[in-house]
Amino acid sequence: MPGSAVVHAAVFAAGAVIGGGIAAAVTSRRRVAVPVQTQAPIVEVGAAGHAEIAKHVSAGTLLPPVLKYGNPGPIVDPLIRKAYVAAYDRRLRHPAWTAEHLTLASLGRSRLVPPDESEKGDRGKSTFVEDASLPTKFRSRLTDYARSGYDRGHMVPAADAKFSQEAMDETFLLSNIAPQVGVGFNRHYWAYLEDWCRRLTTNFADVYIFTIPLYLPRLEADGKWRVTHEVIGSPPNVSVPTHFAKVVLTSRPSSPSKPDVLEVSTGAFVLPNAPIPDGAPLESFVVDIEHVERSAGLTLFSDELKSASKHICKTAKCEVIVKRFDDAQKRPEMRRAISSPK
């Protein structure tokens, strides 16, 4: 596994900043209001005054005459689901990013809003399926993952969408999937990073999670940086990311007397798509959000919001609880659960 210093250098070396920003009215530690941007955001302020994932992720523009017979792209397909919003990358055949809004209520853990058991999603009833909403030639296929050596890794975990069967089924669309190393990553450290994200809802009113596959350069023996990655499928179809990023934004009232003045925390973690030791501290994977933005070609949050927010590891305990089921792995009846502990 690459050391954290290599991960930091690789993140810093790649990409360029493009895209829209976050439009959320928040305050800094000094309770100074942050201006709202006018660009199409990933997260915006809803009619009730609460931050929420935008229902639109891109805006159309008028085409110049030279493109009257068609725009070749690149095109990112916006995907609006029950539990998440995503942008699908047709070239790489996996999400460019996914965005979620988690609360105690959305996870069925709120004492004030008890879950509707009749609508609760059952993972056992969900199956991986190709996304029929995408053009056939740009889809990832079930056969691409067969005998590939990689897990079908959820970018939005099924455990984040238990509030209905439809929501859970949508997490099994291959447009929400990217190839991930299984043992030591998708089935272990990455799964419990997802669990850490869910546990943030016990301390924060709103938790926003962005999952971003990355392709980071590596410094080679000749002193040059190169990006190399595998492509699975026959013919080759789905690219295998070298790293994955989790970027979180949390908010809660700064005080009981001022519930509309929010304390906002943010943080970014970049993990290699490789086995990670159980004891690896989560904070060893912390990077600046701007590094992720440059690498992915995204603007997740405005500069004002980033400078006004606290770091998530200052307001929450950045510790992943990894649970191994090595004994259970020897039992055939347990393999299904072990393969996807999300």
How is this structure best described in words?
The protein is an alpha+beta fold. The chain has a single domain, classed as Extracellular Endonuclease, Chain A (3-Layer(aba) Sandwich). 19% of the residues lie in helices and 24% in strands. The chain has ten helices and 16 strands. It has helices at residues 4-13, 142-145, 165-171, 182-186, 189-199, 289-296, 303-308, 312-315, 326-329, 335-339; strands spanning 43-45, 51-53, 76-80, 85-89, 94-102, 151-154, 177-180, 206-214, 218-219, 225-226, 231-232, 238-239, 243-255, 258-272, 286-287, 310-311. The strands form five sheets. Strands 3, 4, 5, 8, 13, 14, 15 and 16 form an eight-stranded mixed β-sheet that branches. Strands 1-2 form a two-stranded antiparallel ribbon. A two-stranded antiparallel ribbon has the order 6-7. The longest helix has 11 residues, at 189-199. It is globular and about 55 Å long. The two termini are 22 Å apart. Keywords: Endonuclease, Hydrolase, Magnesium, Metal-binding, Nuclease. Its cofactor is Mg(2+).
